[in-house]
Each structure stands twice: as structure tokens, then as C-alpha cells.
Amino acid sequence: MFSQVRLKLLPSIKCMFDEPIQVKVAGLRPRQVVNMRAKLTDDKGAVFSSSATYRADGSGEVDLKRDPSLGGSNVGVEPMGLLCSMRPHTMHKIYLKTNAINPQVVKFSVNEEEGRLLAEMTNERLLMRDGVTRISVNEGNIRLVLFTPPEKGPFPALFDIPTFISEARPSLLANKGFMVLPMAVYNKKGDNITETHLDHFEEAMNFLKQQPKVGDGSVEGEVVRSRWVW
User: Fold this and answer.
1) DSSP single-letter state for residue 128
2) Domain range holding 15?
3) Are residues 17 and 87 in the same domain?
4) The domain spanning residue 14 has which CATH number?
5) DSSP readout, 34-60?
6) What is the pLDDT along the chain (230 residues), one digit of tens a residue?
7) Residue 217 and residue 139 share a domain
């Protein structure tokens, strides 16, 4: 059975981080019930996963774009449900991507109801499109990373202030034509944080304003909680 079942990720096993993929399974028995899973490990070692149950059609095929989940992490027709419904294995963990150069690897699998593996495939989700630059900044008190789109500019600029540093959001914004400088409220585990030096944030903001590719010298700042992005 393992050799007959085929798991397909369309249009390709490689895609951009925020692009949809079509997940299909072929080679099952007609009306066979299977469990489909997605799993990843972020750059801090936190494991996220999801699972949902599907019933094959009369041809032994499952298509997440067409077929409803019968239960699990998501219910109903959700083409990207296995990705959107991922949850951490450890409570209170948030998704962190500390280096956008490396793609996020997601492993999809198809299993019988009894748990036997039928098929699996790996999806590489790229965070930076061709030409986007990721430059380390080491100036004054600034120890950050600047993301810049590939074109000549000028670009609108964003000063991103998440709770903890993650490069998923800044890299995706750079893909869309923004120059982004992320600076986390906490660069380390914040259990014993007693003070925050606001002058460091002002220094980083001024650095971003001085970049030659910034449109008119103006910068938009946003305080956000780093979160899962698809």
C-alpha cells in the first residue's frame, strides 16, 4: 500500500512562505478514511503540528481544495487548513524564525486510521524572494538585521517592534516592497527584564530614516506581537 499511495504538493514542493499549495493524495482505496498531518520545527526548536481526517472519493483520491475535513485540527473544506491550524506541542510557544535565509521545512504525511504511514513529502517554504537582501547592522547600540527589496526604490519603511525577534514578518514585508528593520522588545527570554532602553529604539529608528532607499525619510512604526504568519 505504501508504494501505491502518492502525496502531491502542487504546483511545487517549493514555494514562498505565504503562498498557498494544493495538497492531494492518490492511490487510496475508494472511500478510505485517512489521517493527514503537517509538522515543523521552528528555529528555536519548538515543534508545531496539525492533523485532520479525510475520506477518499470513489477514485481513491483526497483533495484538500475540494474535500472537507471530518475532524481534527480543522473542520470543513480548508485548502490550507493543515498549515493554518498548526499548534505548538509545548504550551505558550510562538513561532519564531531567527534566520529568514533558510526556508521553513514542513513535513506532510498520510496515515491509515490505525496509524501506519502511507506516504510523506516535505514542503520548503521560502521567506525571501530573489533579490531581497538581509544585512546585519552593527552600529552604535544597534545589533539588528535590515531587510531591503531588490528594486532601486525609494521604498516605504517600517520599524517593526515584535515581542520577541522573528524574521518571518519582516522578510515577507520586504518581499512586498517595504524596507523593514525589526527590533524586538525582548532579545532574550524576558523573565527577568526590569527595564527597556527606549533610547536604543530611537537610535534604530534614526538609522532607518537615514537609509538612502527610504522614500521621503519617513518611517512607520508598529508595535506587534510576533505571531504565526501564512
Assistant:
1) S
2) 6-126
3) yes
4) 2.60.40.2240
5) EEEEEEEE-TTS-EEEEEEEEE--TTS
6) 445 999 999 999 999 999 999 999 999 999 999 999 999 999 999 999 999 999 999 999 999 999 999 999 999 999 999 999 999 999 989 999 999 999 999 999 999 988 899 999 999 999 999 999 999 988 887 788 999 999 888 899 988 887 778 899 999 999 999 999 988 766 555 455 555 566 777 888 888 888 888 876 555 554 443 333 43
7) yes
